[in-house]
Structure formats: C-alpha cells, structure tokens
Write a structure and sequence with these properties.
five-stranded mixed beta sheet, single chain, 623 residues, mainly alpha
Length: 623
C-alpha cells in the first residue's frame, strides 16, 4: 500500500479521556470540539495554515480567556482533524489511501490553500490522490472511504475520479502496471513484490480478475462503476459476469441449490435486510446486458424466484421473464418449477409465469426464423435431420417435462393446461409420446378427484385435450397403449387405430418396394449375395415377396372395412367392440394379474404388458 510521510517533529499529542492534549510546554489557548472529542491547542499554528480557522478565531471574544470553537460539521470528524492538527504543528504524519480522502475534504473545508503556506494540506493530499490513481488496490481503498464524506467527495469529484481510474484498469488490465513518476512512496511489508508501488506479478489471471475486488463496494458505488464500464463498451459477457458475482456474494440464496429445493429462497441467511436485497435485485436486473445468452439462464431463473419472494417491482420481474424467455432452451426443469407465492395461490407452481416466458420465447424464435429463413432452409436441405436438438425442440422437451410435473396438481384447470401445452408447434416434435403421457396423467388425476362415477371432465373436454396429441407421431408402443386405454373417448381411439394401421401399411409397402429393387438387382448381377437374414425374414426372397404381398392385401382389406365401420359407428360399447374385432384387436381387461393379458393387434409385434408400464407409473405417482 502506498503512503506519503509529512512533517519532521516527534509526536507531541496524547489522549487524556476524551481530550487530546498538546505537550509543547505552553498552555493551550483554544479548545476545538468535534463531536464528543475536544482538542486543547494553540491558535497560532492553526491560523497560519487555515483561512477558516483564522476567521473563526478572530470572532472569538476575550484574549485572556480560553476560546472554544465547535467544528461538528468537519468532514472526517475528530479522526481527520487530529491529522490536520499534526500537519499544522509539523508533527510526523502519514498519508495513506485509507485517510487521504477525508483529509482532502477536511483541508478543503478549512481552506488550507497555498495562500496560507507553501505545500499546504490541499496540495499535498491532491498530489497523493493523483499518485494512487495509478494503482488498482489503492484506488479501490480510496473509493470506499468516499462514502464517509460523500457530499464533500462528490463536490471535489474524488469519487468520480476513483471510479474512472478503476474502470480504465478493468477495461484494459495492462494499465494496472503502468508506473507513475514523480512520487516517492513507502511500501508495506506485504508489498515485497512491489517496485515503486507497482506489483511485479501480473494481477490479472483472466477477464474476471477484478470481480472479487469490486464486489466489496457498496451498491451505489458498484452501480456507478458498472455504469462507467458499460459506457466504455466493456464486453457484455464481462459485465454480466461481474453482476452475477456481486449478486451471488450479497444474496447467497442465488448461488445455493439447497435453498431453492426447499422452496424458500428469501429465508436464506444474508447480511442484508429484505428491503436491501430487493433493491439489489432490482439494480442488478436493470444493469444486465440485453444480449441473448450472455447471462446464465440458471442465474436468471433463481433471480426471478428471489425477486418474487422479496416482492420486487413488477417491472423487475417482467424484465427477468423476458430475458429467460429469450433463452428458455437453456433452462433446467428444476429451476423452472417456481412456487406460486401470489395471494391467490390457485396452483402449487406458478404456471402463469412459465406461460409468459414461453410466449416470449415463441416471439423471439419466430423473429429469428423470419430473419434467417433462407439460411435455415438451406441448412435443413444439406444436413437433413441430423441436427435434431434445435432450440424449439429443446423447449418442447422442457415443456413436456414441466407439464408432467404440474399435471398432478388438482387445482390446475383444463384451459390453463391446454393453453400451455398448445404453445409449442406440432413440427417441434418428431414423436408425440410426451403429449400422450401428459394427457394420460391429466385424465388419471381427473378421475381421482371425484371418482369414475362423477368424472370431472366430460367426453367433449376429453376430446378437446386429446387434440394436443398428434396421433400420426405416436410410436408403436404409445399407439398400442392409447388404443387399449379405456379413458380415451371412442373417437380418439378409432383415430389412433387408423393411423396405426396406416403406419403398418406404409412400413410393409416400403419393405416390399425394397425387396422388389433387390430382386431386380439380383437379376442384373447374379454374383450379388442374397439379402442378409435378420432372423425375421425368410432365406428365400421369393417366399418373402409372397408373404409381404399377402400382408399388404390384408391391410388394404382391413382399412376398407374400418372406413365402412366408421361411417356406421354409434357411441355404444357394442359398436366399439365390433370395430375392434374387425381390426383384430380387443380391449385389455382391468386386472392386477399381469400374466393374463389380452392379445395385441394381429399385425403388431408389441407386447401389451410393456405398454401398460407407463400407466402403472402414472397411477403410482398420483396415488
């Protein structure tokens, strides 16, 4: 730490109770009171250095009486005035980054200019300030002391000069090691690796080398520092990194996973009051860069949860929701489960908040697609389906997981559930098994509320929620499970069966086409080996051809019969059983004995026992 020694005389001041006495051998003729402390001094040394003290002492009455002078408004208080008194008496004293700012303000207050002696207090403190502005640590210490004398430090622009110096060094770390000539300073023992007050080892180890140092500043000073950094066009990622570091340090719940798992982020211990934490969150959010992907999504979600718990302003929460929505594809499910702390608390989790974030994601994603539509089409044409995990696909999977968590909530109404599930477009999913799982959970919960005899959802409402599921994108396992589930309306089950048969027909037709091409290739080149046997196809391609031709013919007949039955379909269980028999399927009996299960569709090779596993897991979760 840099320092500057002034004066040459030995120490003559000593403390007696609350009074500072001067051991010059001459009786004191003036008493200066500052707060609870008094100084018994002599007029001449003081008036020779200070214009203010000279004028004040002229107004004191009585030359023989000991004058009493009150200076309660002196910047820095009694501690600063002790150094002023030592300077006036020529006693040895030391200027350091910790005391130079109060002394500079006190010297200005007392008007200790060059008119009252060469090398007076104002010029000495000003020179030392300019000197320490070349050093990061010393400037930081000086800035912290500005808060003790803030009104005076602002008038003298000391705080702004400190901040400007720090911003320059944070923006360009090479400036930290620049020497400042023309001053001689004394190093402290811990500064053994210093030359002329400059560290010989590089302080910075990365772009975040200054994060910890500035995090010790108070919020007003830190805000001004970051505003200066932003004004100098510091990289947004560095700005966001410092803001995140500062917030986590002063609100530990933002960096603690356990506090969020307990659902009570505001209760996590902090040195700040709730009002101060709320103010800090609002300030940090206001300073965050607007660029997408700069601020970690996990931090934004935890900040949102904390802001809600602290009842931060609506503009702060809305800003966080928009920032999260813009990069929702980077969110984790556990952080998205925000507890509902509103006054109504209709649901366990704040579904409305997630709805707003999802809506904003769709707006941003739509704008991005519109601005780069040509590039996207060209990329899809080149890479095909190899790049599956697009932001939209990630959000679709995230929403499937989120809806699976909130669906068991008995207070979650159908319109809210349907509104959230319908936001993601159909083309975002290659398979729609997730939607089927969500529908099944919702139907099971609705039955468990009032029982099967008084269902919560009507058939029309069930058909409405089933529209969230694209039957054409169900896997064979989900198709079989849905077709055998008695909770679904009859019309939905028939639709599921229709597309299942259509898939089988398309699959067999593709197999037939491939076999036909293989036969032609074998005729052209007799040396080519036969089709590799996979255990399911015959060794003889002629037999395989006949079998596939027969299966295609059977599927065509079944589809034709199904279409005719659909036209005559009536909403009764009798007609339903007739249709299933035509399709070669029958419903599974509701039995806890898994050894006796119904046979699947004739053309399906999926075991019914495997298809019921999903429903058993859901029932176990609900119960």
């Amino acid at each position: 730490m840099a320092s500057m020694k002034l004066g040459s005389k030995s120490e003559i001041f000593y403390l007696y109770g609350q009074s500072w006495q001067c051991s010059t051998g001459l009786p004191s003729d003036v008493i200066i009171e500052i707060g609870d402390t008094s100084f018994h001094l002599h007029k001449f040394p003081l008036i020779s250095r200070s214009k203010v003290l000279e004028h004040l002492m002229k107004d004191l009455s009585g030359e023989n009486e000991k004058s009493v002078l009150e200076l309660h408004d002196l910047p820095g208080g009694a501690k600063a005035f002790l150094h002023v008194a030592k300077f006036c008496y020529g006693v040895k004293m030391e200027l350091t980054p910790s005391n130079v700012v109060p002394l500079r303000c006190a010297a200005e207050y007392l008007q200790m200019s060059e008119d009252y002696g060469e090398g007076n207090m104002i010029i000495q403190t000003e020179n030392f300030l300019n000197h320490i502005f070349g050093y990061w640590t010393d400037t930081l210490k000086a800035l912290k002391t500005c808060e003790e004398v803030l009104p005076f430090a602002e008038e003298l622009h000391i705080a702004s000069r400190c901040i400007h110096s720090l911003v320059l060094k944070a923006a360009d770390p090479s400036l930290v090691s620049l020497p400042i000539s023309g001053q001689t300073i004394v190093q402290s023992p811990e500064d053994s690796d210093m030359w002329n007050g400059i560290s010989l080892t590089s302080k910075e180890t990365g772009e975040d080398w200054w994060f910890e140092d500035v995090s010790s500043l108070s919020l007003p000073m830190y805000r001004r520092f970051m505003q200066g950094a932003i004004a100098r066009h510091m990289k947004p990622r560095r700005v966001a990194g410092s803001l995140v570091y500062y917030a986590k340090k002063h609100i530990p719940s933002l960096g603690s996973q356990s506090s969020f798992q307990n659902g009570n982020s505001a209760a996590f211990k902090s040195n700040l009051s709730e009002a101060d934490q709320r103010n800090l969150i609002e300030e940090i959010v206001d300073l965050l860069p607007n660029e997408k992907g700069i601020t970690p999504t996990k931090f934004l979600l935890r900040s949102l949860r904390t802001a809600m718990a602290l009842y931060a302003s609506s503009s702060c929460c809305a800003s966080l929701e928009k920032r999260i929505g813009a990069q929702l594809d980077e969110a984790d499910l556990e952080d998205l489960l925000i507890p509902n702390i509103g006054y109504s608390m209709e649901t366990i989790h704040d579904v409305d908040c997630v709805q707003r974030m999802l809506d904003h994601f769709m707006i941003v994603e739509h704008d991005d697609i519109d601005s780069t539509s040509n590039d996207i089409e060209e990329e899809r044409r080149i890479v095909g389906s190899s790049q599956r995990l697009t932001p939209m696909t990630k959000v679709a999977d995230l929403m499937d997981g989120y809806l699976a968590e909130v669906a068991p909530d008995v207070n979650l109404k159908l319109p809210k559930f349907q509104s959230l599930a319908a936001v993601i477009p159909d083309n975002a999913r290659s398979l729609d098994d997730g939607s089927w799982s969500l529908i099944l959970i919702f139907l099971i919960v609705s039955e468990n509320i009032l029982g099967n005899t008084h269902p919560w959802m009507t058939d029309s409402e069930k058909e409405q929620i089933c529209r969230l599921m694209n039957c054409q994108k169900l896997s064979l396992e989900a198709n079989t499970h849905a077709a055998q589930n008695e909770r679904l309306p009859l019309r939905v089950v028939v639709q599921v069966l229709f597309f299942e048969q259509l898939k089988l027909r398309t699959s067999v037709a593709g197999w037939f086409f491939a076999s036909d091409n293989l036969d032609n290739s074998q005729n052209l080149n007799g040396n080519l080996p036969l089709l590799r046997n996979d255990g399911n196809t015959p060794h003889n391609p002629v037999i395989a051809f006949d079998n596939m031709k027969e299966r295609v013919s059977e599927l065509e007949k079944e589809c034709l019969s199904m279409k005719q039955d659909l036209e005559k379909m009536m909403k009764s269980k009798g007609s339903w059983n007739m249709i299933l028999k035509k399709l070669g399927c029958r419903l599974m009996p509701k039995s806890s004995n898994n050894s006796k299960v119904s046979k699947p569709c004739r053309k399906s090779k999926i075991s019914p026992a495997s298809t019921t596993q999903m429903e058993e897991n859901v029932m176990a979760a609900v119960n």
